[in-house]
Design a protein that fits this description.
The complex is a heterodimer.
Chain A: H1 2-35, H2 37-61
Chain B: H1 3-36, H2 42-55, H3 63-70, H4 80-99, H5 106-122, H6 129-160, H7 166-206, H8 218-243, H9 252-271, H10 278-291, H11 300-330
Helix pairs in contact in B: 1-2, 1-4, 1-7, 1-8, 2-7, 2-8, 3-7, 4-5, 4-11, 5-11, 6-9, 6-10, 7-8, 7-9, 9-10
The chains are: A mainly alpha, B mainly alpha.
């Protein structure tokens, strides 16, 4: 019983954290979309490639 | 029933069959992670995904259907032959890429087919540039957004459970995966079924079966969702049975992050009326989760082939549809 309750609490906290991560991401995306495709497209592509590069550097250093 | 009505009705059936195969083909995306992590049995997972594919008919709008119906090509040039050619173009390209094992988008094939057939009929002037530009840009943007959101989510989860016992982590994410799989199926159902709705609605509108104003009738909404849900039900079951022999090892938290991030990306695109490929988006999400562990694990040679097929989808399905239209016009 205690184990199930702990899982429910942890699950709720995780769902909250997921919302805290995803909602701002998509708010930024909507603002970029409103600014136009010419702003959204390069922003997303450059940020995505930079993120991939940073992850690559980090995993190479591990 | 007149010959014209029968012709329109048979094209509606072809469109629904296309939708069924969309569900059939994409079902594995929705259920693979929950099955591989043993959260649900294959049958339970398929029923779960199909249920949310259908439920997506209610309350998520029809922005994507409107974009497909009147935002890509000028509706004044659309007729039965254009729609039929578009569907044939999309189906042929889907079969070719399926034959070579490339996970391309049925949605983009459909858009390419529509554009190709319309150009073959009336030239490039009938294309609505802004609509096509947006769809084309999102071929790159949607998997990239899936990637970025999945990386953020996977890193947040990693931080949150840094010191937790592995058994506790497994327990929590087995339950959360039910939610993320449901959200993904909801996104898949709404974005993909709306493409078929748009095609059927524009066909009915241009042939005078819809009255004076473009709209998507309720029976079209329900039948498109029923077709994709049935496709998931049949396709998912078959594909998951095959996968049982060579299943990919996935941790529940990885499946959760990839699915939740992709679902958010697809639902976002649906709300702003952009038809995106659900396959591309979850591919981005999976690469994102994998990248937080080891980027070198990504097989770049395979990835490049897939991206080339993604880029070629609209032009080639368009060329096929144009060819079909030129033949159909003479019949």
């Amino acid at each position: 019983m205690k184990g199930v309750l702990l899982e429910v609490v942890l699950g709720t906290v995780t769902a909250g954290v997921a919302a805290l991560v995803l909602v701002p991401t998509f708010v930024v995306l909507k603002l970029l979309l409103d600014a136009g495709l010419e702003v959204l497209f390069p922003s997303v592509v450059i940020f995505g490639l930079l993120l991939a590069y940073v992850l690559h550097r980090q995993s190479a250093g591990r | 029933m007149s010959g014209e009505v029968l012709f329109v009705a048979s094209i509606v059936v072809v469109a629904l069959v296309f939708d069924f195969f969309n569900g059939f083909h994409d079902a594995a995306n929705s259920v693979a992670t929950v099955v591989s992590t043993r959260v649900l049995t294959p049958l339970q997972a398929v029923v779960w995904a199909a249920f949310f594919n259908f439920v997506a008919a209610f309350g998520l709008g029809i922005h994507v259907a409107n974009t497909i119906g009147k935002g890509i090509v000028d509706t004044s040039v659309v007729d039965e032959r254009v729609i039929l050619s578009a569907l044939i173009g999309a189906i042929v390209w889907d079969v070719i890429t399926w034959r070579y094992g490339l996970p391309t988008s049925s949605s983009h094939a459909l858009i390419g087919g529509l554009v190709g057939a319309a150009i073959a009929k009336a030239g490039t002037g009938v294309i609505i540039g802004a609509g096509l530009e947006k769809v084309s840009a999102f071929i790159v943007i949607s998997p990239m957004v899936g990637f970025i959101a999945a990386v953020f989510l996977a890193l947040a989860v990693l931080q949150l459970y840094q010191r937790a016992a592995p058994s506790a982590v497994q327990g929590v994410f087995r339950r959360l995966q039910l939610l993320s799989a449901a959200a993904y199926s909801l996104g898949h159902g709404t974005n993909d079924a709306q493409k078929t709705m748009g095609i059927i609605a524009v066909l009915l509108f241009t042939t005078g079966h819809l009255g004076g104003e473009f709209h998507v009738p309720l029976w079209v909404i329900l039948s498109a969702h029923a077709a994709i849900a049935l496709g998931t039900l049949f396709g998912g079951w078959r594909i998951v049975r095959t996968m049982g022999l060579r299943i990919t090892k996935l941790e529940p938290q990885d499946g959760f992050a990839a699915e939740a991030a992709s679902a958010a990306a697809i639902l976002f695109a649906t709300q702003v009326g952009i038809p995106v490929s659900t396959t591309h988006t979850i591919s981005g999400g999976i690469v994102g989760v994998g990248s937080t562990k080891r980027l070198s694990a990504v097989r770049w040679g395979v990835a490049v082939n897939i991206v080339i097929a993604w880029i070629l989808t609209i032009p080639i399905s368009g060329l096929i549809a144009a060819g079909v239209y030129l033949i159909a016009r003479k019949l």
